Amino acid sequence: MNVMQIDRRRFLAGSAGLVAGIGMTRPVQAQSYGQAVAVDKDEGRPVANMRLPGEIVGEIPALRGVTYVGPREAEVTLYEFFDYNCPWCRKAAADMASLSASDTALRIGLINNPILSPHSAQAAKVALAVQRRLGSEATWRLYQGLLGRPGKVDGPAALAAAGKLGVPAAEIEGIGDSDEVRLALKSQMRMAADLGLVATPSYVLGNTGLLGHPGAKSLARMIAATRRCDRIAC
Where is the Thioredoxin domain (predicted)? Predict the structure, then answer.
């Protein structure tokens, strides 16, 4: 067995241990939760949402490894907490791209919350390694590519996609296995747990948490309302 195979085994095993340490959950039907503000999804069903503790939300910008798209000085930032193997996150990724293109004043922050399987944690570690090595623009492309493809997203799939960005897979794997990436992923998952974001995807907009994906039009309405009155509906 060569060194690369040993490193790959350690990388995969470490991902499984990290997910187990935070706690793994199943996908949640967000409709079973209540509404702090009456807002609807694109198809007309209620969006589950809750007011979040401002002191915890205020810690989000300090998280390591968040992928940002949009102007740093943006008035509104929409944070998405997602899992690479969440089926609803595939639709969300397309809608995030649409929102980013149509609202150039919006800032989007992508935060890993790989609660569905160790495969998701493997992919998240690769994405955080790309973020650390190449920055947000490359990680945004990786996010779009991985969530735009069919099938399971795991470490090898993510490494193959990352390799197309011009960094050798061995280098990305080494960064992904570092303490810096492990701690960044742990802190991102802990933030989701502390905020009660039990569904994937979930969002933080202002001091409101949204469970599940409302759709691009619904999110756009809530973003516009947040700009007007600092609430997801005025």
Answer: 41-190
Per-residue model confidence as pLDDT tens digits over 4-26: 443 544 554 455 555 545 544 43
CA distances from 126 to 86, 180, 190 (A): 17, 12, 19
Q: Is the peptide bond before 201 cis (omega within 30 degrees of 0)?
A: yes
Residue 35: which residues within 8 A CB-CB, separation 6 or more? Answer: 46, 47, 48, 49
Query: Any alpha helices (H) in 69-117, and if so which ranges?
Result: 87-102
**What pTM does this model have?**
0.88
Q: Is the dihedral angle over the CA atoms 191, 17, 166, 85 positive or is it negative?
A: negative
177-207: pLDDT as tens digits: 999 999 999 999 999 999 999 999 999 999 9
Instruction: Give the Cα separation of 222 and 179 in Å (integer).
Output: 37
Under 8 Å between Cβ of 218 and 46? no
Give me 154's structure tokens.
């795991």
d(CA 120, CA 37): 31
Instruction: For the chain, give every domain's residue range.
Output: 3-14+28-229
Per-residue pLDDT at 19: 53
**Which residue is associated with the tokens 């993510």?**
158
Residue from 40, 47, 6, 2 nearest 173 by CA: 6
Q: Give which of 203, 228, 205, 231 is closest to 113, Cα–Cα.
A: 203
Instruction: Identify the residue whose tokens are 């907490």.
Output: 81
| Domain topology for 3-14+28-229 | Glutaredoxin (3.40.30)
